[in-house]
Every structure is written in structure tokens, then in C-alpha cells.
Amino acid sequence: MFDFSEKTAFLTGAARGIGRAIALGLAKGGAKIVLCDINEEALAATAREAEALGAQVLPLRVDVACEEAVRAAIKQAEETFGKIDILINNAGIYPVSDFVESKSEDWKRMIDINILGTMYACHAALPGMLARGYGRIVNIGSVAGHYGLSYFVDYSMTKGAIISFTRALAKAVTPKGVTVNCVSPGSIDVNGIKKNTQHSFTGREGTPEECASVVLFLASDEASYVSGQEYLVDGCRKLM
Ligand SMILES: NC(=O)c1ccc[n+]([C@@H]2O[C@H](COP(=O)([O-])OP(=O)(O)OC[C@H]3O[C@@H](n4cnc5c(N)ncnc54)[C@H](O)[C@@H]3O)[C@@H](O)[C@H]2O)c1
């Protein structure tokens, strides 16, 4: 477990799945946490779980596709807790699609959430981080962005953008004390189905906690010499 007792973290897509596991990991480490999501009921449940672990929690209904809402949430987080040390951009959607049959309005919605949502939060949180000379940004990519997957053509594009955004932003802000990294999950079981999978040499899907543990490392002080990197958490993926 990492020590986040002096830290404030801002996490998107916190209500369920990988985001919930990250939220609970931050809570166990003693962080103050701002949890953002559009699913208010699930968000409230995750916030209660984090509070039960002793964390100070600020749950906010935020659609990351809305620039004004993201900027207002970052401002509220800074006013409430004084600073943001850790920003984790996890909110994302990943509908399976046949590219030829897909519609441009669906690509645009995915770009708004998966790419622009991450950019809005980084852009709003960075001035405070740079002024204090400390920050940890962790963006969530995907094996789809790393390899390109035929049933996720538009989604692969959005996550490929996150991976290159991470590399470029790291070069801009690492000299000022802010690290920027990306975690690209493979097949993670967010519904508790525990499927076997032929996509991984482990023969199984990963758990949200197995993904969160890598995110938490990159969010910690221990990852001080790691920046601009993409970590694949895919159980040694088989390329198909
Ligand atoms: N589960 C996997 O196998 C897998 C694999 C690769 C990448 N990922 C990525 O990991 C991240 C988390 O995925 P997950 O599997 O936990 O998904 P999930 O659907 O279980 O959880 C995503 C959360 O994000 C929230 N969300 C969706 N749109 C939002 C918006 N516009 N604003 C704010 N919150 C929003 C949802 O309400 C939900 O709580 C995503 O970025 C996803 O692309 C997941």
C-alpha cells in the first residue's frame, strides 16, 4: 500500500469498475479524494465505501465531456482541499462497433469523453501543480490504443491519442515536477463475471484491483523517476 496521507487526488469515472478500485486504493492510502462520475447512485455508493476506509471524500456529478463542468470541479476541489496532487483520468466509454457501420456522432461523443475529457482536466489542474512543483497525472489508455483492435476502430483511435498525449505532455511538464503516465488495461473484469479469455497468456481477465495497483504506483511518490510512460496491464496479451 502506498502512503497518500498528505495528498489530494482527483479521479474521474470513479463510480464503478477500475475507477472504483482506484478510489478505494487511494482511500486505503489516506488520500483526500474528489470522485467524479455521471452515475450519481453508484458514485454515492463508492464514496460511502471510501469514507468507511477513513477517507475525506468529495463526490461530484461531472460529465467529463463538458469543459465548464470539468473546470468547475477542479476549482471546487482546489477550494475544498487546497490543492490537487494527483489527477487520474479514468472516465471512458468503449462501445464495440463495426467502423463501416458506425456513425460520426458516435465518434464525436467518444472523442469528447475519452480524449477531450482528459485534456480538460489536465489543462485545469496543471496550473496549480506547476505552481507547487509537484503533480502526478495518470491517464487511462487501452490495449486498443496500443495495438489497434478491429472491433474497436474508433475507440482505438481515442486511446491511441491518450497514449501520445501522455508522452508529449510529460515532456512539457516533467521538468517542473509533474509526472505524466498512462496505464493501458487489457481485458479487465468490471462486472464480476470472471471470464476465461483467450486474449491473455494468463487465460483469464484481470481484476479492477490488479489494474488499480499499477495506477496507484504511478500516482505515488515512489514513482518519482517515471514519466512519459505507458504501462500495459494485460496479463501478457496474445495478439490476434
Ligand atoms: N475494463 C476493461 O477491460 C478496459 C480495458 C481497456 C481500457 N479500459 C478503460 O478503463 C477506463 C475505465 O473502464 P471500466 O472498464 O472501469 O469502465 P466502466 O464502464 O465499468 O466504468 C467507467 C465509469 O466512467 C463513468 N463515465 C462514463 N462516461 C462518463 C462521463 N462522460 N463523465 C464522467 N464519468 C463517465 C461511468 O459512469 C462509469 O462509472 C476507461 O477509460 C476504459 O476505456 C477498460
Q: How many separate domains make up the residues?
A: 1
| Euclidean distance between termini CA atoms | 35 Å
Class by helix and strand content? alpha/beta
CATH topology: Rossmann fold
Number of helices: 7
| CATH homologous superfamily (4th level) name | NAD(P)-binding Rossmann-like Domain
Average pLDDT number = 97
Give the proportion of residues in helices. Answer: 40-55%
CATH-defined architecture = 3-Layer(aba) Sandwich
Bound molecules: nicotinamide-adenine-dinucleotide
If strands are numbered along the chain, what order do they take across the biggest sheet? 3-2-1-4-5-6-7
Beta percentage is: 15-25%
Keywords, separated by commas or semicolons:
binds nicotinamide-adenine-dinucleotide, alpha/beta, Rossmann fold, seven-stranded parallel β-sheet, 240 residues
Describe the protein's topology.
Blueprint: E1 8-12, H1 17-28, E2 32-37, H2 40-52, E3 56-61, H3 67-81, E4 86-89, H4 104-132, E5 135-140, H5 143-147, H6 153-173, E6 178-185, H7 208-219, E7 230-233
Parallel strand pairs: 1-2, 1-4, 2-3, 4-5, 5-6, 6-7
Helix pairs in contact: 1-2, 1-7, 3-4, 4-6
